[in-house]
Each structure stands twice: as structure tokens, then as C-alpha cells.
Write a sequence for this structure.
């Protein structure tokens, strides 16, 4: 996050000379320490909103994972449990992703599917796709 | 040399193609066969992960080529099935609802 903000600061510097609209942007920049904190907190807020997958989604994902991997009912499944920790190899992950696609009626891309390692990530991805779908 | 990512993506595309069948029977069959086929491939995949054994590599290549051929077959047959969809729903599907 620090690298992001420094890059944005350096981007603003050349645009300072240009138009009047940039003056509005310039003002927060002059209070550099404050804007640093502000930028970070707004980014944090945004991250929080996008990260919060609904608990029902997480629950449904956990159910599907439990069923696919044939786990007993007492194995604790938190949102952070990794598939590999539960004894799933990459083919099991493929099956899980397929089952999730069918259940939630979404379509997961190849690249996204490779990155899913925990239940939370799967739930987040599902939420993302479910939101994008009605817009499309 | 076939790598793990290719095998995984072959598995996914086979599963996806198999899902398109309107007929319940062949849909389930395609799913079962790909997973079973890849489970045996899992043995060869493990061999690939340990990656010391050349003969396992050649088996993996064979299996991969076989999988590709089956993929073509599935795609072709899907088109035929889609042209003549079944008129009534299979009873197994009704129960799932």
C-alpha cells in the first residue's frame, strides 16, 4: 500500500502545473502527512467492503467443500481453511470449483480458479461474479 | 513435455464440455469418466511431482494425448445431442429439484 501511495504522489507532481481542476487535487497533497493517512484509510475501507463475503455464501462454500472432500461433520471449517490443508490436491480443487460454478450459476475463469486456495477466497470470488453477472 | 497446469486445464475443459449435455445420463457419465480417468492420472501426476521417473513422464504424455482425443469426441457429440434434446426430463433430475 505504501508503494501505491508513493506512486500516486509522484504522478500528481507533473500535473500540478496544468489546469485549474488539478488545483482541487493539489490541496490535499500539500498536507502530505494527513493525506497519506487519509489515502490509506480510504483504501482500507474499500478493501473491507470488497472483502466482506456474506456468511451464507461462506457457509454454502463450506458445505460443498465438505461434501467434495468427504470430510466428517466434526472437522472444523473456518473461512480461512486452505483446501490443501484439508487434504485436497489440485484435481480436488478443480472439482470444488466446478461444483461451486454449478451451485451458484457462475463461470470462473482459468486464472481465477488457479488462485483460489482458501474458502474465503472462493466466497469472495463468488460474490464478485454474482455482482458482475446481473450488470452484464 | 506436459506439465501439471495443462493437465488441470484439460480436466476443467472436459468437465465443462460434459456439462453441456441436455441428457442427464450422458452428462453424469461424462463427469464420472473424466474424474475417474483423471484419478488414475493422479497416480501419474504424483509420479510427475516426484519427477524422477522418465517412464512415468511418457505415461503422462500418453494419458494427456488420450484426454485430448476424448475432448474432441465430447465436443462433437455435444453438438449432436444439442440438435436433438430429450423431450422429457429425466426422473433423477426431478428429484434433485
Amino acid at each position: 500500500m505504501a508503494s501505491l501511495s508513493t506512486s500516486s504522489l509522484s504522478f500528481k507532481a507533473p500535473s500540478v502545473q496544468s489546469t485549474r481542476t488539478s488545483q482541487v487535487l493539489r490541496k490535499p497533497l500539500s498536507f502530505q502527512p494527513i493525506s497519506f493517512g487519509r489515502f490509506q484509510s480510504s483504501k482500507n475501507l474499500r478493501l473491507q467492503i470488497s472483502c466482506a463475503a456474506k456468511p451464507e455464501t461462506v457457509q454454502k462454500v463450506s458445505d460443498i467443500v465438505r461434501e467434495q472432500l468427504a470430510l466428517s461433520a466434526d472437522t472444523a471449517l473456518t473461512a480461512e481453511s486452505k483446501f490443501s490443508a484439508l487434504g485436497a490436491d489440485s484435481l480436488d480443487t478443480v472439482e470444488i470449483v466446478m461444483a461451486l460454478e454449478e451451485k451458484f450459476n457462475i463461470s470462473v475463469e482459468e486464472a481465477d480458479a488457479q488462485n483460489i486456495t482458501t474458502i474465503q477466497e472462493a466466497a469472495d470470488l463468488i460474490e464478485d461474479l454474482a455482482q458482475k453477472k446481473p450488470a452484464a | 513435455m506436459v506439465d501439471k497446469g495443462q493437465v488441470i486445464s484439460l480436466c476443467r475443459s472436459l468437465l465443462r464440455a460434459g456439462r453441456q449435455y441436455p441428457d442427464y445420463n450422458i452428462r453424469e457419465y461424462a463427469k464420472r469418466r473424466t474424474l475417474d480417468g483423471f484419478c488414475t492420472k493422479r497416480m501419474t501426476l504424483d509420479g510427475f511431482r516426484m519427477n524422477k521417473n522418465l517412464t512415468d513422464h511418457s505415461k503422462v504424455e500418453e494419458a494427456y494425448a488420450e484426454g485430448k482425443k476424448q475432448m474432441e469426441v465430447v465436443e462433437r457429440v455435444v453438438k449432436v445431442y444439442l440438435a436433438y434434446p430429450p423431450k422429457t426430463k429425466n426422473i433423477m433430475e426431478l428429484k434433485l429439484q
Summary: The domain at 55-132 of chain A is CATH 1.10.1200.10 (Non-ribosomal Peptide Synthetase Peptidyl Carrier Protein; Chain A). The interface with chain B takes residues 89-91, 94-95, 97-98, 102, 110, 113-114 of chain A (CB under 8 Å). Confidence is low (pLDDT under 50) at residues 1-46 of chain A. The longest helix of chain A spans residues 32-51.
